[in-house]
Each structure stands twice: as structure tokens, then as C-alpha cells.
Write a structure and sequence with these properties.
It is built from ten helices and nine strands. The radius of gyration is 29 Å and the shape is globular. The N and C termini lie far apart (98 Å). α5 links the parallel β1 and β2. It has a seven-stranded parallel beta sheet with strand order 5-4-3-2-1-6-9, with helices on both faces. A two-stranded antiparallel ribbon has the order 7-8. The chain is an alpha/beta fold. The protein folds into two domains: 52 residues; 266 residues, Glycosyl transferase family 29 (sialyltransferase cstii, chain A, Alpha-Beta Complex). It binds cytidine-5'-monophosphate.
Length: 325
Amino acid sequence: MTTLLKRFHYITALLSSSAILLFLYFQNSEVVLKYSYYSFVSERAQRTSHICLEDRGNSSWFSERYKPTVPILLNSTNSELHPNISSWWKELQDVPNVSNYTEVVDQLFSLFPDKEHYSDAGPDRCRTCAVVGNSGNLLGSNYGQQIDSNDFVIRINKGPTEDYEKDVGNKTTHRILYPESAVDLDDNTHLVLLPIKVLDLQWLISAFTTKNITQTYTKVPSTIKASKDKVMILHPEFIRYVHDNWAEGHGRYPSTGFLTLIFALHICDKVKVFGFGATSDRNWHHYYDETLTLFEYGSHGGDFENKTINQLHQENKILMYKGLT
Ligand code: C5P
């Protein structure tokens, strides 16, 4: 009887310890399963963010042109210009009143943010951008929501949003302009000045202070409604780089739209392009007015710019939304 009881106790102990061992085993495997599930998920998230960051090195055509180290926005530490760039830039628009560039730059950065903007590129960044040109192909496109869903929405010159929201959206994080194309901005928008002469830098200072510059080669607004803390200035070396590397010297200097697109390639990880494209008779038309400009007319190499933009699309570096052409 005692032997039977002992055997019974022995079997119960054996069974319970096996149950405990089995429990522990499954618990651990659940941990393992859970762990591998989470690492699978995070690996997938990482892969997704890598999808966002375009592989800039996978096209020799692109690598030959793209220079990651070029200064994009001006600040007090990168403002000194190489003599070649200085002379090229200062002769783009011949207006009187050429002042001392260095003095003007000193004034600029006592007034506007003196920062290293957008030096945060890396595998974890996933910044999507919409570049919105002013082409009439936006009318009836219904692109508004798609445009607004991007982190940055970069608009150009006078392109309005009011009354055109359905086709062009209503978010504007950046607007690229120069004195002759200036419009008022809301407080959330970065004013990005495209300076084509020293006087443009002086106009920016004047517009926020004395308001005494009202004339360049034409009449310009004496002031602008915009947030002083959000002002940025394209670097003259960047303008020259776009002219040399991307427009391959066509035109005297690149169009605002083309410069904006290359600017976006440098500060964004995914670039979607809206509102670019002329009419079939080669006119630049606008979605908001009736003006027509032959795009090969004037200072820009419109035809070559278009070819380069199409090539960027072919190489998967930008995504073109062609609207109703
Ligand atoms: O006419 P505006 O210069 O203000 O337009 C901004 C930019 O939009 C142009 O520099 C050009 O690159 C682009 N655009 C275009 N096709 C049009 C009108 C403008 O590609 N029909």
C-alpha cells in the first residue's frame, strides 16, 4: 500500500513538473514568437522607410548630376562666394545700385534665421514633398487632397490656392519667390527667396524694415506679409549648380519652377511634381490667369528643363502628375 502511495506521489510529481516544464516551454516560445513577430514588424517598418528614401546612387545619369554637398540655403557661415560664382550671379540681372554683398549678408542674418536648414538627411527620414508649379494642366485635375497629404507643399511665385482648392489644395509650407513675383504669405509658410541679384537681398531686408525699396527693373511691393522667423534664402551657388549640372548651361539661368524642383530633390526623400507642363503650342499657361508665355522665350532653357524633368521621372527620382494636358 505504502509502495503504491509512493508510486502515486511520484507519478503526480512527474506529471506536475512536466506540466510546469511544458508551460515554461510554451511561454518562452511565445516570447520567441512574439519577439520574432515584433522584429518582423519593425524590419518591415524599416523597409518601408527605406522605400521612402530613394536610392540616389542607383542611376549613373542621376549621380553624375546630383551633388549632395552643394550649399542649398544661405547662412552666415556659407555665404562667402567663390569668385566664379560671384561674378556669374552678380551679372544675371543688370540693375544699378549694386551694393557690397558682404555687408548685405551681415544685415540679412542679423534679421532672419541664421541656420543650417535641412541637414537632417538619413535613412530614417521620410519626408514627402509636393512641388506645385503654376501650369493650367492643374485645372479640373482634382489633385488638391493628394497635394495636401505631403509633409511639405512647395508653391511657386503667385500661384494662389483660394478658389482653386479642389485642384491645387490649400496647404503651403514653402513658397519660392523673388521681389518681382512676391505675394503675401500666411504665418505658417516659409518665404524662400530666390535671389537673382544683390538688390533682391536688399529688398528682403527693406520689406521687413524700412520699406523703402519699391523698384528693381520694375515696380515691386514695398513690403510683404510673412513670418520673419520663417525666411530662407536660396544660395547663389545652388542656382549656379542647377544651371550647370541640371540645365547643362541652357538659358541664362534656371526657371523658378526648375530650381524649386531640384531644391525639393535635395531637402525631401520623395518628390511629387504637380502643375508642370506647357500647352501643345509650347506656351506656359497658368491655372489662375490668362497669360501665355512662350517657354523658350526669355532667360530660361524651357525645352531642356522639360527634358530633364521627364528624365528624372523616368529614373524614378520624382513622380510627375501631369493633370489634364
Ligand atoms: O509662371 P511661373 O514662373 O510663375 O510658374 C512657376 C513655374 O511653374 C515655372 O517656373 C515653370 O517651371 C512651371 N510652369 C510650367 N508650365 C506652365 C506654367 C508654369 O511648367 N504652363
